Amino acid sequence: MSTSQTKYPKFLDADFEKDISGRITPRDGPIVLRNPHIDDLAEDVLYHLDLSDKKNDLPAMFGDVKFVCFGGSPKRMEKFAHFMVKELNINIQAGMTLSNISHGSDRYVLYKVGPVLSVSHGMGIPSMSIVFHEVLKLLYHACCKDVKLFRLGTSGGLGLEPGTVVITDAAVDGLLRPYMEVATLGMLLQHPAFLDRDLCEELQAIGSADTSYNTVIGKTMCTYDFYEGQARLDGAFCDFTVEDKLAFLKRIHDRGVLNIEMESLCFAAMAHRAAVKSAIICCTIVDRLQSDQISASHEMLEDWQGRCQQIVAKYIRRHLNIQ
Amino acid sequence: MSTSQTKYPKFLDADFEKDISGRITPRDGPIVLRNPHIDDLAEDVLYHLDLSDKKNDLPAMFGDVKFVCFGGSPKRMEKFAHFMVKELNINIQAGMTLSNISHGSDRYVLYKVGPVLSVSHGMGIPSMSIVFHEVLKLLYHACCKDVKLFRLGTSGGLGLEPGTVVITDAAVDGLLRPYMEVATLGMLLQHPAFLDRDLCEELQAIGSADTSYNTVIGKTMCTYDFYEGQARLDGAFCDFTVEDKLAFLKRIHDRGVLNIEMESLCFAAMAHRAAVKSAIICCTIVDRLQSDQISASHEMLEDWQGRCQQIVAKYIRRHLNIQ
């Protein structure tokens, strides 16, 4: 590491202060890492993906990747990968099937279907953060270009019929702050969480073609806690009343928050910091102005989650010119 | 919920301010929920565990539980459950095996071996928080008594030989603050993260009987990010030098931090808030003063993780009077 001693990043966060005003726009082109130390590593072990830039030929394995789709649940992302096989008319030889590339790690699943990666991120910002760091390094080592990132998720809606699809134009934390704070070497650094407006609108147009449900664009609140953090009365702890809860949810709804989940702030902040075009598309599975608990049937939940998958699949087909 | 309108918790957090001084000590006895609304719910769906207090007879299923062991990886917690079958001399009928009670959820695994639950918590505070809320409600609905909670984990050590076992006496965040902050209805509430000193010392005594490795008690830093948050130079982003990194790690080491991981603050804060006796026992898998990357072999990692499992198993056997 001695060679790193005088190395500073190509971009310091100071240069990125203008992010706060959203003036840095995500771009196409090669993936750039804002870390000058990576190229000095004898080996870069992507520990939680069970991959390495020395043990694996990452350019050969992943060089053609153009779309990375993240979702919380490993089973759901495995199903999404099989769904994309059909959507992209991928021909899988007899006796073959998709294999979880990260099976050695037990932390995340990683499937590749042509130019599409399907990755699980687990629940919450830290779990999303680990896999995002490693996927970004994977795309860098593989020399990928013109990559777009999607998070497909579930969320609690505000004043929306369950099953509504929400596309996030900005993520905010539990105090409505539009950035992710990362305690870094004793400083609380703030990373703004903006998303690509054009991508939002293109996805909304695709979703709106299906009139059996609504597809809307709005603010997403991202919390570190599913119960108290989302004003639920049904956690193991609660020191507020139903009136306190409803007053809070109405207050954030009045300020443009359409849904609440647990990863958008990290996904948006890291994608923006890496200047990669990305979008967050979540179905709502409960109206939090009506209820805390998720009572929809398993079949209903599957159907709602399928809506986000179909919208992203249509987007990918269009950009690959697949009829 | 109208019956909740005037309900306030049996304990308000205000009463618990004295937690800050650690004066509230965890106690044996029945699990108490600091949430007056739970008893008003027509049904309490433990969504991420795929259980419900109406659809499942929780007292019959879980009433005898005395020890809950949490760990990050689902596969590891499945292996731990099978390990406890042997340790507790549990007789499993021919043709039977352990079954993941939460298999319907795909978020966490939950195994029961006599009075022991083996639960995965995923990675990071939010993922730990969700399962902790729901396990605590499970223990409450099941009328469990005298329960002890353990987190068995892996961590990066500071100045310790990899394979050392660290038992946490206090958890701190990335700024050395000994509490977890939860944004709750627009307020940042602070929940102190203390652990039971007697339990720490009993576990250390058990670990110290094996002189092939060291078992130490100390402070654990809990971060929201694995890379920058833990002063690693090998993430997708890095704007500090190797000297900055080492200066920070030495500074926190000088203040008593022995290891760094991603769940202890939440586990300690929620267990303390619930006044349940609990302990955090992690092996170190890398010395962060020497390296960022985890290069130990799979076999070595398995061996190190087995140390924590054996210590907790010996503790449980002792308290169940199993020779």
From TrEMBL, chains A, B:
* Residues annotated for phosphate binding in this entry: 107, 151-154
- Any GO BP: nucleotide catabolic process
Q: Which residues form the Nucleoside phosphorylase domain?
A: 66-317
Stored Pfam families: PNP_UDP_1
Query: Where along this sequence does the record place binding of substrate?
Result: 230, 232
| Cross-referenced Gene3D superfamilies | Nucleoside phosphorylase domain
* Any one cellular-component term (Gene Ontology): cytosol
Which GO molecular function entries does the Swiss-Prot or TrEMBL record give? uridine phosphorylase activity
Family, per entry: Belongs to the PNP/UDP phosphorylase family.
The protein here is known as: Nucleoside phosphorylase domain-containing protein
